Each structure stands twice: as structure tokens, then as C-alpha cells.
Amino acid sequence: MTSTQNSSRRRSEDLRPFVAPSELADDLQAVLVDLVELHLQAKQAHWNVIGPGFRSMHLSLDELVDTAREASDTIAERMRALQTVPDGRSDTVTATTSLPAYPSGTRQKSETVELMTARITAAVDTMRGVHDRVDAADPATSDLLHAIIDDLEKRAWMIAAEQSPTP
């Protein structure tokens, strides 16, 4: 091997992992708390939906719970990979989520559809709002946002399709 071939090798001590800049960490934290809150609100809706069409809505909400929970785990693990610390504690989620609070008590299926599609929209709006900054800082992370947005918008469509058509 010639000395020219060796000159392109990096030294181990010069290699450092990518560390998320503070704005990227803040943007991912905002996404994380909305996904955790979406998961919790979908479970609340799942437990308390009543009336005609209960069974299909109950099952659709369980699918949303799984989607939001998996997405929050994906974002939190990405944050750790980027050397930042996710905060999914209940007090942090409550204080910082952008999702409207979910009402207490039971809800008819039609109201549940409206409430949950609005909350999915809010979570997606957060992701779309931070997307360009995330993409500029770390395109690989923006790819994760794309996949989550796609999943959530599909869930919103499927939940909205549970609504009876208007005459």
C-alpha cells in the first residue's frame, strides 16, 4: 500500500458521533410530547367510545394507539442516537403538548371521530411545522418524520371514514 492510499484514512480519535444541535433536539422533543399525548388521548377515547359503531371505532382507536406509541418510541430512540435526552414524563407532556385536552366522560362515535381526527391533525401539524428545520439539520431524521406523518394521516383518514356520510 502506498502512502497516498493511507492518507485518506481517518484516525479513530478524530471520529465523533453526530450530536443534535439544540434546535433539532427541541423540535424532536415537541414531536415526542405530541405523540405521547396522542397515544394517551387515543387510549382514553378507546375506553370511552359508546353507541352504534362502537366495535369498529374501538378497534380503530387501538390501531391509532399502537401507531402513536411506536412513533413516539422511534422519535425518542432517534433523540438518544443523536446524543440528546428525550423527556416523556407526564408533567412534561402535559405542560408542553400542543394537542387540545381530551374531554372526560363517554363520547358517541361521531364525536370521537371529530375529536381524534383533530388531535391527529394537531400532531401532524407539529411535525410539518418543524420539518424544514429538522431536514436542514439532519435529513435522516426528517425521513422518520415523513413515515410518521404518512402513518398518522392514514389513521386519520381511516377514523374519519367511520363517520356516517352526511345526506
Automatic annotation (TrEMBL):
Ferritin/DPS domain span: 27-161
CDD domains: DPS
Coiled coil: none
Pfam families to which the protein is assigned, alphabetical: Ferritin (PF00210)
Region entry Disordered, spans: 87-108
Membership in a protein family: Belongs to the Dps family.
Protein name from the UniProt record: DNA starvation/stationary phase protection protein
